[in-house]
Amino acid sequence: MSQDNKTNSDSNKGVRDRLLDAAEELFCEHGFEGASIRDIAASADCNIASVNYYFGGKEKLYEEVWRRHLIPMRDARIASIENVMSQSEGQPRLEELLRAFADTFVGPMIKKSARQLGILMAREWIDRRLPAKMFLDDVVRPTMTAMSNALVKVCQGLDESKVPLVVLSITGQLVQVAHIKAIFEQGNEADLPMFDLNVAIEHIVKFSAAGIRAYVEGKTE
User: Fold this and answer.
1) Please, what's the b/e burial string for 84-99 (b: 16 or more CB within 10 A of its CB; e: otherwise)?
2) Are residues 174 and 102 in contact, defined by beta-carbon separation less than 8 angstroms?
3) Each residue of 104-118: pLDDT tens digit?
């Protein structure tokens, strides 16, 4: 996109969206402390008062930068679960449920637009600024609840006390495979094995399905 087209595109955005775009870029580049309200407003071509008007301060602006990534990711994951359950009258094959969840879980994490979210996550890990329960309440709890309920319906006989750990195991594998894909692509080393994301996801689906069925059949006791 040329600079002129970028300028026209930015000018067509509302003040709130321009502030979010500018804040995300500066938070990624400089961190929370290093990105001043003055710099954010200037980058968004807004006055300083607009930050308080739309967000109530820099802290709330920071939270909204996160939410515009996290909420669509959460909604897509939950929708994938609901879709596969409704299409199969509540009884899809276990692999179908796991595959639908895996595809929508990993997909947004490997898009180019997710690069800035990765930078934000790295900075947040070092310098915690989000409310302690925000990520838990907005993303983790709703997603885990939806997936847990689906697993209980699909895998009748699965000990419900084991379901949270099953969901954590699946999501842990998916997060790791997304990170590994990024590492392999950055390394570009000839001695690294070819990384096919679809193959990796299919492995996670089959591996997890086998483990879940072993739980149901009592073979892990």
Assistant:
1) bbeeeeeebebebbbb
2) yes
3) 988 766 665 667 887
